[in-house]
Amino acid sequence: MRNFYFIAVLGLLFVGCSVDNDEIVNEEIGVADVTVCDVTAGADNSITLTNEYVMNNLYTPARLERYFKRLLDEGVPTDGTFSPSMESLILSYQDFNFQTFTTVYTVGEGGCTDFTELSIVVVEKIEEPSTCFIGDDIYQEVENKFIQENIGNDPVKLKNYYLGLLNDEVPLNGTFSPEIATIGNSYLRDNYQTFTTVYTVDFGDCTDSVKITVKVLPACAGEDKFVTRTNSFVQNNLYTPSRLRRFYLRMLDSGVSVNGTFTPSMETLIQSYQKDNFQVFTTTYTVDEEECSDSTKLSIEVIE
User: Where does the FHA domain lie (predicted)?
Assistant: First the structure.
Protein backbone atom coordinates (compact mmCIF):
# COMPACT_ATOMS: atom_id res chain seq x y z
CA MET A 1 0.00 0.00 0.00
CA ARG A 2 2.77 2.41 0.93
CA ASN A 3 4.63 1.50 -2.28
CA PHE A 4 1.54 2.11 -4.42
CA TYR A 5 1.06 5.53 -2.88
CA PHE A 6 4.72 6.38 -3.51
CA ILE A 7 4.42 5.34 -7.16
CA ALA A 8 1.29 7.45 -7.58
CA VAL A 9 3.05 10.52 -6.17
CA LEU A 10 5.97 10.04 -8.55
CA GLY A 11 3.56 9.85 -11.46
CA LEU A 12 1.98 13.19 -10.54
CA LEU A 13 5.40 14.82 -10.27
CA PHE A 14 6.40 13.63 -13.75
CA VAL A 15 3.12 14.88 -15.25
CA GLY A 16 3.70 18.29 -13.66
CA CYS A 17 7.22 18.52 -14.98
CA SER A 18 6.07 17.52 -18.47
CA VAL A 19 3.57 20.40 -18.64
CA ASP A 20 6.15 22.97 -17.50
CA ASN A 21 8.71 21.77 -20.05
CA ASP A 22 6.19 22.01 -22.91
CA GLU A 23 5.44 25.61 -21.95
CA ILE A 24 9.13 26.46 -21.85
CA VAL A 25 9.69 24.88 -25.28
CA ASN A 26 6.70 26.71 -26.73
CA GLU A 27 7.94 30.04 -25.33
CA GLU A 28 11.42 29.48 -26.78
CA ILE A 29 9.96 28.63 -30.19
CA GLY A 30 7.83 31.77 -30.11
CA VAL A 31 10.86 33.99 -29.40
CA ALA A 32 12.88 32.46 -32.25
CA ASP A 33 10.09 32.86 -34.82
CA VAL A 34 10.91 36.52 -35.82
CA THR A 35 10.78 37.77 -39.44
CA VAL A 36 13.74 40.00 -40.49
CA CYS A 37 12.54 42.90 -42.68
CA ASP A 38 15.22 44.61 -44.78
CA VAL A 39 12.92 46.58 -47.10
CA THR A 40 13.72 50.31 -47.24
CA ALA A 41 12.02 53.15 -49.07
CA GLY A 42 14.91 55.55 -48.48
CA ALA A 43 14.87 59.05 -47.04
CA ASP A 44 12.16 61.70 -47.45
CA ASN A 45 12.86 64.06 -50.32
CA SER A 46 11.51 67.42 -51.49
CA ILE A 47 12.17 69.63 -54.48
CA THR A 48 11.03 73.09 -55.55
CA LEU A 49 9.83 73.61 -59.15
CA THR A 50 8.38 76.56 -61.01
CA ASN A 51 4.75 76.49 -62.08
CA GLU A 52 5.91 76.85 -65.68
CA TYR A 53 8.05 73.69 -65.40
CA VAL A 54 5.17 71.68 -63.91
CA MET A 55 2.75 72.81 -66.62
CA ASN A 56 5.22 71.92 -69.40
CA ASN A 57 6.53 68.63 -68.02
CA LEU A 58 4.29 67.04 -65.36
CA TYR A 59 0.86 67.36 -66.95
CA THR A 60 -0.07 63.63 -66.99
CA PRO A 61 -0.18 61.01 -64.19
CA ALA A 62 2.50 58.94 -65.95
CA ARG A 63 4.90 61.88 -66.25
CA LEU A 64 4.28 62.93 -62.65
CA GLU A 65 4.87 59.38 -61.37
CA ARG A 66 8.17 59.10 -63.27
CA TYR A 67 9.28 62.39 -61.75
CA PHE A 68 8.42 61.32 -58.20
CA LYS A 69 10.36 58.08 -58.71
CA ARG A 70 13.42 60.10 -59.68
CA LEU A 71 13.27 61.64 -56.20
CA LEU A 72 13.78 58.21 -54.61
CA ASP A 73 17.17 57.25 -53.18
CA GLU A 74 19.34 55.07 -55.38
CA GLY A 75 18.47 51.38 -55.11
CA VAL A 76 14.90 51.83 -53.82
CA PRO A 77 12.45 49.50 -55.65
CA THR A 78 10.27 51.32 -58.18
CA ASP A 79 7.29 48.96 -57.99
CA GLY A 80 5.78 50.58 -54.88
CA THR A 81 2.51 52.48 -54.47
CA PHE A 82 1.67 56.17 -54.06
CA SER A 83 -0.91 57.63 -51.70
CA PRO A 84 -2.49 59.93 -52.68
CA SER A 85 -2.37 58.83 -56.31
CA MET A 86 -1.01 60.88 -59.20
CA GLU A 87 -4.52 61.53 -60.43
CA SER A 88 -5.48 63.00 -57.04
CA LEU A 89 -2.43 65.24 -57.01
CA ILE A 90 -3.18 66.56 -60.50
CA LEU A 91 -6.77 67.34 -59.47
CA SER A 92 -5.43 69.22 -56.44
CA TYR A 93 -3.02 71.11 -58.69
CA GLN A 94 -5.86 72.14 -60.97
CA ASP A 95 -7.68 73.59 -57.96
CA PHE A 96 -4.61 75.57 -56.85
CA ASN A 97 -1.19 75.54 -58.54
CA PHE A 98 1.00 77.04 -55.83
CA GLN A 99 1.20 74.55 -52.98
CA THR A 100 3.24 71.59 -51.71
CA PHE A 101 2.18 68.29 -53.27
CA THR A 102 3.15 65.38 -51.04
CA THR A 103 2.63 61.68 -51.63
CA VAL A 104 3.60 58.69 -49.47
CA TYR A 105 5.51 56.04 -51.41
CA THR A 106 5.32 52.51 -49.93
CA VAL A 107 7.40 49.44 -50.86
CA GLY A 108 7.27 45.84 -49.63
CA GLU A 109 4.35 43.53 -48.94
CA GLY A 110 2.53 42.07 -45.96
CA GLY A 111 3.99 43.10 -42.63
CA CYS A 112 7.37 43.88 -44.19
CA THR A 113 6.98 47.39 -45.68
CA ASP A 114 8.58 50.81 -45.53
CA PHE A 115 7.51 54.22 -46.77
CA THR A 116 8.90 57.67 -47.55
CA GLU A 117 7.38 61.09 -48.18
CA LEU A 118 8.07 62.75 -51.53
CA SER A 119 7.12 66.39 -52.07
CA ILE A 120 7.05 68.91 -54.93
CA VAL A 121 6.77 72.57 -53.96
CA VAL A 122 5.35 74.66 -56.82
CA VAL A 123 6.36 78.34 -56.91
CA GLU A 124 6.11 81.19 -59.39
CA LYS A 125 9.87 81.85 -59.58
CA ILE A 126 13.01 80.33 -58.08
CA GLU A 127 15.38 83.00 -56.83
CA GLU A 128 18.90 82.82 -58.21
CA PRO A 129 21.68 82.24 -55.66
CA SER A 130 23.50 85.32 -54.45
CA THR A 131 26.35 86.53 -56.69
CA CYS A 132 27.87 88.48 -53.82
CA PHE A 133 30.80 86.12 -53.16
CA ILE A 134 33.92 86.95 -55.20
CA GLY A 135 36.24 84.29 -53.81
CA ASP A 136 38.71 83.54 -51.05
CA ASP A 137 41.74 85.67 -50.21
CA ILE A 138 44.60 85.35 -52.70
CA TYR A 139 48.34 84.95 -52.01
CA GLN A 140 50.89 85.05 -54.82
CA GLU A 141 54.68 84.97 -54.91
CA VAL A 142 56.46 86.48 -57.92
CA GLU A 143 60.09 87.15 -58.75
CA ASN A 144 61.23 90.74 -59.03
CA LYS A 145 62.65 89.94 -62.44
CA PHE A 146 59.15 89.09 -63.71
CA ILE A 147 57.82 92.42 -62.43
CA GLN A 148 60.63 94.35 -64.09
CA GLU A 149 60.28 92.55 -67.43
CA ASN A 150 56.47 92.46 -67.65
CA ILE A 151 55.10 95.34 -65.58
CA GLY A 152 57.84 97.85 -64.86
CA ASN A 153 56.46 101.19 -63.66
CA ASP A 154 53.25 101.01 -65.70
CA PRO A 155 50.20 101.34 -63.35
CA VAL A 156 47.83 99.97 -66.03
CA LYS A 157 49.88 96.76 -66.35
CA LEU A 158 50.09 96.47 -62.57
CA LYS A 159 46.30 96.82 -62.26
CA ASN A 160 45.76 94.18 -64.95
CA TYR A 161 48.16 91.86 -63.11
CA TYR A 162 46.12 92.13 -59.89
CA LEU A 163 42.82 91.70 -61.78
CA GLY A 164 44.26 88.60 -63.44
CA LEU A 165 44.66 86.97 -60.02
CA LEU A 166 40.89 87.09 -59.37
CA ASN A 167 38.62 84.11 -59.92
CA ASP A 168 36.88 83.82 -63.27
CA GLU A 169 33.54 85.65 -63.56
CA VAL A 170 34.47 88.20 -60.88
CA PRO A 171 33.48 91.69 -62.13
CA LEU A 172 36.47 93.83 -63.03
CA ASN A 173 34.88 97.17 -62.14
CA GLY A 174 35.65 96.96 -58.43
CA THR A 175 37.92 99.17 -56.36
CA PHE A 176 41.34 98.62 -54.76
CA SER A 177 42.35 99.83 -51.30
CA PRO A 178 45.12 100.90 -51.20
CA GLU A 179 44.96 101.99 -54.83
CA ILE A 180 47.20 100.51 -57.50
CA ALA A 181 49.15 103.79 -57.83
CA THR A 182 50.03 103.61 -54.11
CA ILE A 183 51.29 100.04 -54.52
CA GLY A 184 53.39 101.08 -57.53
CA ASN A 185 55.01 103.94 -55.59
CA SER A 186 55.76 101.62 -52.67
CA TYR A 187 57.40 99.16 -55.07
CA LEU A 188 59.66 101.90 -56.45
CA ARG A 189 60.90 102.62 -52.92
CA ASP A 190 61.49 98.96 -52.08
CA ASN A 191 61.11 96.12 -54.59
CA TYR A 192 61.41 93.24 -52.18
CA GLN A 193 58.38 93.38 -49.94
CA THR A 194 54.82 92.04 -49.60
CA PHE A 195 52.12 94.18 -51.23
CA THR A 196 48.53 93.76 -50.02
CA THR A 197 45.36 95.40 -51.31
CA VAL A 198 41.64 94.76 -50.75
CA TYR A 199 39.50 94.45 -53.88
CA THR A 200 35.79 95.26 -53.38
CA VAL A 201 32.84 94.76 -55.72
CA ASP A 202 29.49 96.53 -55.15
CA PHE A 203 26.59 94.47 -56.54
CA GLY A 204 23.97 97.05 -55.58
CA ASP A 205 22.13 95.06 -52.93
CA CYS A 206 25.34 93.61 -51.44
CA THR A 207 29.12 93.95 -51.53
CA ASP A 208 32.02 91.54 -51.11
CA SER A 209 35.77 91.90 -50.82
CA VAL A 210 38.85 89.77 -51.29
CA LYS A 211 42.37 90.43 -49.98
CA ILE A 212 45.10 90.09 -52.62
CA THR A 213 48.66 89.66 -51.38
CA VAL A 214 51.69 89.65 -53.67
CA LYS A 215 55.15 88.90 -52.29
CA VAL A 216 58.03 90.00 -54.53
CA LEU A 217 61.05 87.70 -54.35
CA PRO A 218 64.60 88.33 -55.54
CA ALA A 219 65.50 86.44 -58.70
CA CYS A 220 66.89 83.10 -57.59
CA ALA A 221 69.96 83.51 -59.81
CA GLY A 222 70.57 87.00 -58.45
CA GLU A 223 71.22 90.26 -60.24
CA ASP A 224 73.56 90.78 -63.20
CA LYS A 225 77.15 91.65 -62.20
CA PHE A 226 79.95 93.55 -63.93
CA VAL A 227 83.53 93.92 -62.58
CA THR A 228 86.80 95.28 -63.94
CA ARG A 229 90.15 93.54 -63.46
CA THR A 230 93.62 94.24 -64.77
CA ASN A 231 95.26 91.96 -67.27
CA SER A 232 97.99 91.28 -64.69
CA PHE A 233 95.35 90.11 -62.16
CA VAL A 234 93.77 87.77 -64.68
CA GLN A 235 97.11 86.26 -65.70
CA ASN A 236 98.13 85.67 -62.09
CA ASN A 237 94.80 84.46 -60.70
CA LEU A 238 92.35 83.26 -63.40
CA TYR A 239 94.55 81.17 -65.63
CA THR A 240 92.67 77.85 -65.29
CA PRO A 241 88.98 76.97 -65.85
CA SER A 242 88.51 75.99 -62.18
CA ARG A 243 90.02 79.27 -60.90
CA LEU A 244 87.91 81.31 -63.35
CA ARG A 245 84.78 79.40 -62.34
CA ARG A 246 85.36 80.07 -58.63
CA PHE A 247 85.79 83.78 -59.36
CA TYR A 248 82.50 83.97 -61.28
CA LEU A 249 80.70 82.07 -58.49
CA ARG A 250 81.98 84.62 -55.94
CA MET A 251 80.28 87.33 -58.04
CA LEU A 252 76.83 85.81 -57.41
CA ASP A 253 74.45 87.32 -54.89
CA SER A 254 74.48 85.78 -51.43
CA GLY A 255 72.32 82.67 -51.18
CA VAL A 256 72.29 81.85 -54.90
CA SER A 257 72.84 78.16 -55.65
CA VAL A 258 76.35 77.30 -56.86
CA ASN A 259 75.14 74.24 -58.78
CA GLY A 260 74.19 76.13 -61.92
CA THR A 261 75.76 76.10 -65.39
CA PHE A 262 77.79 78.65 -67.39
CA THR A 263 77.26 79.54 -71.04
CA PRO A 264 79.77 79.99 -72.61
CA SER A 265 81.97 77.64 -70.58
CA MET A 266 85.12 78.59 -68.74
CA GLU A 267 87.23 76.81 -71.35
CA THR A 268 85.63 78.87 -74.14
CA LEU A 269 86.24 82.14 -72.28
CA ILE A 270 89.91 81.30 -71.70
CA GLN A 271 90.35 80.50 -75.39
CA SER A 272 88.80 83.88 -76.24
CA TYR A 273 91.13 85.58 -73.73
CA GLN A 274 94.15 83.97 -75.37
CA LYS A 275 93.14 85.55 -78.68
CA ASP A 276 92.45 88.97 -77.17
CA ASN A 277 93.21 89.85 -73.54
CA PHE A 278 91.47 93.20 -73.47
CA GLN A 279 87.76 92.69 -73.80
CA VAL A 280 84.59 92.02 -71.73
CA PHE A 281 84.16 88.34 -70.89
CA THR A 282 80.47 87.62 -70.23
CA THR A 283 78.88 84.33 -69.30
CA THR A 284 75.25 83.51 -68.49
CA TYR A 285 74.83 81.63 -65.23
CA THR A 286 71.63 79.52 -65.08
CA VAL A 287 69.97 77.97 -62.05
CA ASP A 288 67.46 75.25 -62.95
CA GLU A 289 66.08 73.64 -59.81
CA GLU A 290 62.69 72.40 -58.67
CA GLU A 291 61.59 75.70 -57.15
CA CYS A 292 63.44 78.05 -59.48
CA SER A 293 64.61 78.48 -63.07
CA ASP A 294 66.51 81.73 -63.59
CA SER A 295 69.60 83.22 -65.20
CA THR A 296 71.97 86.11 -64.61
CA LYS A 297 74.81 87.65 -66.60
CA LEU A 298 78.28 87.85 -65.09
CA SER A 299 80.90 89.98 -66.81
CA ILE A 300 84.64 90.64 -66.34
CA GLU A 301 86.18 93.53 -68.20
CA VAL A 302 89.96 93.12 -68.62
CA ILE A 303 91.97 96.35 -68.79
CA GLU A 304 95.63 97.28 -68.89
Answer: 201-268
How do residues 229-278 score in pLDDT, each as one tens digit? 999 999 999 999 999 999 999 999 888 889 999 999 999 999 999 999 99
Task: Note the pTM of the prediction, 2 decimals.
Answer: 0.42
